[in-house]
Amino acid sequence: MSPRASFMPCLIDPRGPVPSLGEPLVDEYLRFTAARVRPNTLSAQAYDLKVFFTVVPKPPLAITTSDVLTFIEAQRAPRRGGNVVRLADGEAGLAASTIKRRLATLTSLFDYLLIRGLVERQVVPRSMTPRSRSLRGSPLVRAPKRLPRILEPGEAVALVGALRTERDRAMVTLMLHAGLRRCEVLGLRFVDVQPGDGRVFVAEGKGGHQRIVPVVPAFFTHLSAYLARERPAGADPESVFVVLKGPTRGRRLSAAGLDEVLAGARSRAGLSHASCHELRHTCFTRLREAGMALEAIQAQAGHANLDTTRIYLHLSNDWLAGEYQQAMAVLDRLYEQEHP
């Protein structure tokens, strides 16, 4: 293919597990990175590259920094004619976090091409400051850091009360009271459940990290009832949570299936929000409010970096107020000593 020719990417998944876009260099990169990342990350990267090369229909070796800036502008453009905006930030284009992720994928692709000697420089700029200057500069895309939403105690009770099966109660308990991610709940196997120790083994955590986490006794109660009364005969022998009805009865429950369970419970409980990740955030916020150390929450959450866990300091309503009041009490005593 000529460097100046264009192509239309088409995300396909042939016989092998590595997706393909139909462009040799991009497909080589995807095969290379497949050994370094988890399947979900690989799928996200393949989709990000599909989006980029759809907006900028050039082969990789013809991409310039100007093309990258054009892509950013296109991603910021209003969707659906600008008539729909996000309530969170009032923007009509894609979320800044999504654009940053796509730029990170593109950066990784050109790092690969740079190492191979196929390009002379990285076309994705690190910031708005020229590389020749020592200043750090401003980021290409500024993503505001917002606190995640959590459920109030009454909302959590209403959500659990709206669940219809013991299977669903067991899954929600793992997220709401143990902080498991959606994929970790769906990937739970019978060999991972340790009722004698009151723990579960997370074999496929984010980034491939494994951990053992304690869970509340209520989970084992719901699990026992689910296995005794609801689980179909002949179901997947390894997976704990399977489909209960329909043509896929007995097969491992999918992410879409769990989302559908939560959507129905939200509707019946009259809640406007309650995603799987919000349940996880709620869990760690309540644990922090109860005095659990950040290092312990980090281990429970499976965070690689403690900085990720620090967000729960700010979500905890009592922590900052308590620290402030304690500090002000010390200052008041010092003032009284200096001015008796």
Structural account:
This protein has helices at residues 24-33, 39-55, 65-76, 96-115, 153-161, 166-178, 182-186, 217-229, 255-269, 276-289, 294-301, 306-309, 311-315, 317-338; strands spanning 193-194, 199-202, 211-214. It has 340 residues and is mainly alpha-helical. The chain has two domains: 1-146, DNA polymerase, domain 1 (Orthogonal Bundle); 153-320, hpI Integrase, Chain A (Orthogonal Bundle), CATH 1.10.443.10. α5 crosses α9. It is globular, with a radius of gyration of 24 Å. The N and C termini lie far apart (85 Å).
User: And the CATH topology of the largest domain?
Assistant: hpI Integrase, Chain A
Order of helices and strands: HHHHHHHEEEHHHHHHH
DSSP, total strands:
3
**Largest β sheet strand count, sense and barrel closure:** 3 strands, antiparallel
- Supply the number of helical segments: 14
Instruction: Give the % helix.
Output: 40-55%
From the structure provided, what is the oligomeric state, counting identical versus distinct chains? single chain
Structural class of the secondary structure composition? mainly alpha
Coarse morphology: globular
The top level CATH class name of the largest domain: Mainly Alpha
* Rg over C-alpha atoms, rounded to the nearest angstrom: 24 Å
Order of strands, widest sheet: 1-2-3
Low-confidence stretches: none
